[in-house]
Amino acid sequence: MKAAVIYRYGPAYSFKINDMPEPTLGESEVLVKVKASSVNPVDWKIRQGKLKLITGYDFPKVLGADFAGEVVSTGSPDSRYKPGDKVFGMERAVKGGAYAGYITVKEKYIAPKPESMSFEEAAAIPLAGMTALQGLRDQGKLAPDDKVLINGASGGVGTYAVQIAAAMGAQVTGVCSTRNLDLVKKLGAQSVIDYTREPVLVPGKKYHLIFDTHGNLSFRNAKKSLYDGGILVSTLPSPKSLVDLGISKLNSHKHMEIFVLHPGHDDLADIKKLADEGKLTSVIDSTYPLEEISEAHERSEGGHVSGKVIIKI
């Protein structure tokens, strides 16, 4: 099968398009013919070697977490899937495998593809969409009529977070740059903050939840903009955020959570339902063929991406 492979950690041009053996199907797994994948920041951080303590040095590596495609075969006679079924899902990013013609994945990490979406639109969702859903619902405890501030509202996670929060009945304020103001409003934000022209956190303006997809808001500043019982959820763990987390433990009325994704079928199914009801769409920044995977990674690494960068396979 054709795959985008790295033989060492390094820059985007480290990718090589080579023929690789088709993955072996295990019990409780599904073999999927990949139609599309997408680029998440964790993918290029792995490629750069920033997570090498976790990913190790066993090369060659095929990266990529998100995918959408068609089931080829299953490893169990009791599988809920059959050949030809259209599915979407994700593999753990540290394992990868989606930048290729085929991928094997455990059934618990996939779900039927949204009928209303193309393979490319569905492949944009899994990691970013589940991060948004779980971050808002599970860690953020978002409730109807709550006021939520979404920092990075035009990014991969942010575009889904705005839509999911709106579908949950929250009052959404999105933070983005000037060029994305209309996009974020269209996605469901009642108000927007242009971070290039005005401060994100304003004295007297408070929220029940601050959902920080950029990881650049400190708890020390954010707590002033939280109601009592309010939560700051950061999706990007860092040494700074870990210090903030410790500080937040000293505050009994407001606190901080650092997000950890728990991918699964049920949440993918919930997102599919939202998509098929017309409450969620994928914002596609750009689409590249697998042969241009290096350019796709460079586009994502450059920042200022609106939505997701897609790989068509």
Output the keywords:
16 strands, 313 residues, 6-stranded parallel β-sheet, 10 helices, 27% helix, alpha/beta, 7-stranded mixed β-sheet
Strand content: 25-35%
Biggest sheet statistics = 7 strands, mixed
Structural class: alpha/beta
The helicity comes to 25-40%
What's the rounded overall pLDDT mean?
A: 94
Termini separation comes to 11 Å
Number of helices: 10
Give the SSE string.
EEEHHEEEEEHHEHEHEEHEHEHEHE
Assign an overall shape.
globular
Radius of gyration: 19 Å
Structure commentary:
This protein starts with a strand and ends with a strand. It has ten helices and 16 strands. The chain has 313 residues and is an alpha/beta fold. Strands 3, 5, 6, 7, 8, 15 and 16 form a seven-stranded mixed beta sheet that branches. The longest helix has 14 residues, at 126-139. Helices cover 27% and strands 28% of the residues. It has helices at residues 41-48, 52-55, 119-123, 126-139, 156-167, 181-187, 219-222, 239-248, 265-276, 293-301, and strands spanning 2-6, 16-19, 29-39, 61-62, 66-74, 86-90, 102-106, 110-112, 147-151, 171-176, 191-194, 207-212, 226-234, 255-258, 284-289, 308-312. The mean pLDDT is 94.
